[in-house]
Write a structure and sequence with these properties.
Shape: elongated
Number of helices: 3
Structural class: alpha+beta
Order of helices and strands: HHEEHEEEEEE
Number of strands: 8
Helix content: 40-55%
Strand content: 35-45%
Oligomer: single chain
CATH topology: Nuclear Transport Factor 2, Chain: A
Largest sheet: 6 strands, mixed
Radius of gyration: 26 Å
Amino acid sequence: MRHAGGRLLFTSVIKQNIMKHTFFTCALILFATVLFAQNNSSDEMAIQKVIQQQGEARNKYDWKTLSSYFTDDGILINPVGMIWKGRTEIFTNLKLLSACCLEPTSSKSDVKNIRFLTTDIAIVYIEETLIANKDFGVPFHQYKKGETEYNWKTDVFIKKNNEWKIASRQVTLINQIVSPHNSSDKN
């Protein structure tokens, strides 16, 4: 009997320890989740600020500032499929295309979704509206003042040294025949 009682006492102590560990583990997970959620909101605001500052730089045709929001080895794939590698190449190509294709337009960005893959990596979906500020032409199209086009920007942001930068951006023209732009709530 004494042996059976000892086993019951031992089993009871084990169960209590398991319950305590389970409780503390759940409390730790809950605390970490709340902490991550709070951190996400400040990180979302920081990412939103980068996008807003980039938009301001773009509309001032300040390509140096705009490209500074990319990582040193960042990649930009433009709407016609050209790939620019590195902050310097991004700056050089934006400057090169400025007079013909960028300066005749202004841009407005609308962040549609920010999805955190980790605490320091986020995918951001942005709808961009481009407005022709004057009549101008590019190969295969003549734009009239006020004409609009829409793009999706898919950005991969990374956080280093407590600063969010764009590691990669893919810009995709929204074809108005295949996918007409009806409102800005497309997701």
